[in-house]
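User: Can you help me understand a structure? I only have the sequence.
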Amino acid sequence: MKTRFLQKYPFFKYASAAASAFVVASLANAQDSVPVEAFDLPEDLEVTLWASSPLFYNPTNIDVDAKGRIWVAEGVNYRKFRNKTSRTHPLGDRIVILEDTDGDGEADDSTVFWQDSSLAAPLGIAVIDNRVLISQPPHLIAITDVNRNDRFDDDDKKEILLTGFEGFDHDHSLHSVTVGPNGQYYFNTGNAGNADVESPDLHLFTGSSYLNRTDRAKPSSDGHQYVGGVAMRMNPDGTGLAVIGHNFRNSYEQTVTSFGDVFNNDNDDPPAARTTWLMEYGNLGFSSFDGLRSWRTERRPDQSTAEAEWRQGDPGTIPAGDVYGGGAPTGITYYEGDALGEEYRGMLLSCEPTRNVVFGYKPQPMKAGFALDRFDFFGSNTTGKFYGADFSQTQARNKEARFQFRPADIAVGTDGSLYVADWFDTRVGGHGAYDEKGVGSIYRIAPKGKKLKTPKIDYSTTRGLLEAFQNPSHNVRGAAFYGLKEKGASAISGVSKLLSHENNYIQARAVFLLPHLGAKGVALVEERLKHSDPQMRIAAFRALRSTGSNFMAHATALAKDPSSAVRREVAVALRDVPFGEMKETLLDLVDGYDGSDRWYLEAIGTSVALDEAKAYAYLKSKRGKNPADWSKSFADIVWRLHPESAVDDMKAYAMDTSKDMDSRVNMLTAIAYVQSEKGARAMVDIVKNAEGAEVTTRARWFIENRDKSYWRSFNLMAEIGGQSATLVDSIVPTFPKAKKELTLEEVQSYTDPDISRGKRALSQCYMCHVFGKEGIDFGPDLSAFAKGNPAETVIQAIIDPSADISHGFEGVEVKTTDNKTIQGFVISEGNPLILRVFGGADIVIDQDKIASRKDLHYSFMPSAASLDISPEHVAAMVAYLKSQ
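Assistant: Let's start by predicting it. Here is the structure, written out as tokens:
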């Protein structure tokens, strides 16, 4: 990884903190934090331990205030109903302020701002001058510290800005707020249940296939249907709420650049965690578009896990970005300062606690989107694997026990340094904490040998506001935005000077602020619509759009811009503009599609959301009357729109042997997303009459697959010589009862296991698990599970699978009206219900055949002892898994 990184970014030079043996020895002495000598980071930077317990405990999220202090949201009481730790906060979790009062580089003061029984592992803290935003489901809470005494007391003001978010005490819930360059609050919620959030401008409903929810998402008051995790923005007073992306699993946090670009990350079920540039209104595809079915139900035979989980081959989903395998990413930020060195400006940083690392990216514009090339920026696990030639298992296990760096969040200080909050635990996942002390640490990253000065932020004067507006800390400069906005036209002189600042991010901040300062400010930004940098033209368009300044006139002009990224921005901005007002602009955008840019194609589809049929009729009349004459580019656009009215033409295209085979097969996917009988009958006709085995085979697969969901009532299987999936008999997994279950101590007594024997022993697990490219997709992916957890946890899962069931693999038992019993995992709600059962088969059960249904609280996986696997073989299995 380092070699590839140095080749691409030669301005970084890595220095290994110490030899492996030294790291292991150091860790043996570490009790409550990872020693700084154990970390790797660029050699021109240094890391120090800035704060640790008992100043605070279990940090879930952090933010920086105008004084350079760190605010911490604690999660000591996280999931106590299944938590194994002894530490609790009986009075509720806390919001804590940490400060380095003597300037020696270490925090020495801790103040409890608020502790309350209503706080249960709040996942977001944002500090905007004296306004404190706390993300605690079901509420987004705003507290104004009126008397500025750093404590929530009777003189202060508490507001519920929004309410209706499910996921109390669950990390797939409401997350932190970031002030965007337009002055709006950006935030998100994960897919733990549904949301029913009423605001002045939007009544938001979401639905989720997560947690076996049976209720379907309703369209929100804007007419659009949102599912899964959702990203939003709104004005500080709660007005203007709008969804800007959805269908995530659990995007822990988002970051917004001064150009208005949003980046987020997301954790996964199997190994397909991602870091993504979130194109506005983008659908990431984790659940079906109605929120009822998991991605597994519609995975096509030729799709990888990463492609299927984020539905990368389906119309209506955006590119997922960097999909890097197993992980559970948390905090994320974007560095725009120069204090670390100019080469670090424009760096995206994403915490990945599963891998004990903070990933770095330098996002680069690519076509209508961004390229995200990943490297290890900072971490304790960047130099190699624990199991291998350099370590015996005893050493490795010792290292795992102490090497518990779990970065939960990262923030930019007012002085330009970076702060990384460490949850510090033996494992990630399982929805619980395992560190019995509940300790945590915050590390500070700064230029080596250079003392950074914490600026004195003054929001009371125009000069002070202008200085704060240039600060690299997101919400510190956000507060300055509001202060300068209140100044109105009197601030234009100072703000306009920033348009020529050497830091292009500060230029962009001025672009977003100026339209709020009056007509002269608008005129200055309109000049930037002709800037030589496409990203600056995009920033100018976004800024003018956010204030409603001549929107359609600018959109019409920029629809012919030479940059596909600029045209993409116009396309997404047209969503919800009446079709009659934007159709000519749409035609210009369609003419600009190059036939390969997926971001651009999705932007065109977004521009006509809810008006796909109108758009297809118009575009067909102008550019594609006969399917035989369609170019690949126009066929792509039809594929993306796929209204019912296009079914006959899409069928003709798919059956046209003059078209290339990939394009024909691809068109079948669009037809398969037409839920009506017309789409279903078209697919049957293709099976019966099309030429080309690839086309007919895929068409048959779609019929068999959709017969388990929205085409089931059309009784198509008999027409193609098949039979609808029906339940033949009861399915209840049973295994021989072990004479004696294994213990953790028995397995750990084998300190030098034979890894090759472990690989052979794992063959007994193929009937339940995938590892590598082998096995059956029923239980959790063992390779990913082993990467994200210490050896002790992996051993425990093998010897006692029911002790800690992986999330998403909770079982249910269904009894049918004809006295059959089926046990499995729900992969599709609604009618029919689909259970994945032991062996990997999917069982379809019509709702009218269900007599009862209950949740099960034990695992379907057999224990090692029930399969006669010895403790020595379990040790070898774990050693092999950890070596991969």
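Now, to help you interpret it: The chain is about 30% helix and 20% strand. The two ends are 16 Å apart (CA to CA). Let me know which part you'd like to focus on.
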